[in-house]
Amino acid sequence: MTAGGPYPGRALWLTAIRRYLLAAAAGNLVWETAQMPLYTLWHTASARAIAGAVLHCSVADLIIAATGLIGALALTGSAKWPDQRRAPVTAAVVVGSVCYTIYSEYVNTVMKQSWAYTGWMPTLPWFGTGLSPLAQWLIIPAASLAWAGRTTCNDSPKMHQHV
Questions:
Q1: Which of 1, 16, 137, 142: CA 20 to 30 A from 122?
Q2: pLDDT of residue 151
């Protein structure tokens, strides 16, 4: 093995992380904007306040996405990720993010009443968590990791050995 490691001159895991964060940031910004009418803020606040809320929530989503990936890589990853252990990492990110979302939505909508859903937001029966934020954390991390890992793995030297 050379000084560059298993992928001479390239750190594929770093490229995958960067691509994941880029995709997660874009996906969450779009999702937050699209789901805003399901929150009462959409009907009561100014356009500037709504834009601020979307930006605030999107930045928080990026922090959740990054934290989830770091935790998942620490718990289930490998030195050769994303070529190896991609499914366990993805599962850990999604499970961790969904659990955090259920907790955060409950704390903020029920306990603190920091925000509220409109009647259009379908919710989980026991927790009252909105299905839109829940779907957000089922779809965006998995899709972002699939895109980030697929493109970097196709470029890995290992893939070119049999060509």
A1: 142
A2: 55
Amino acid present at 160: H
Q: Is the confidence at residue 119, as pLDDT, over 50? A: yes
Residue 104 forms part of a structural domain: yes
Q: Where would I find the H helices in 36-85?
A: 41-44, 47-76
- The structural domain count of the chain equals 1
- Report if residue 5 sits inside a domain: no
Evaluate whether residue 3 is within a structural domain.
Answer: no
Residue 58 has a CB neighbour count (10 Å cut-off) of 20
What is 77-105 written as a DSSP string? --TTTTTSSHHHHHHHHHHHHHHHHHHHH
Domain contains 163: no
Domain that holds residue 100: 12-157
39: helix, coil or strand? Answer: strand
**DSSP reduced 3-state for 37:** helix
pTM: 0.85
Question: What is the reported pLDDT for 127?
Answer: 82
Cα distances (Å, whole numbers) of residue 108 to 11, 26, 161: 39, 24, 52
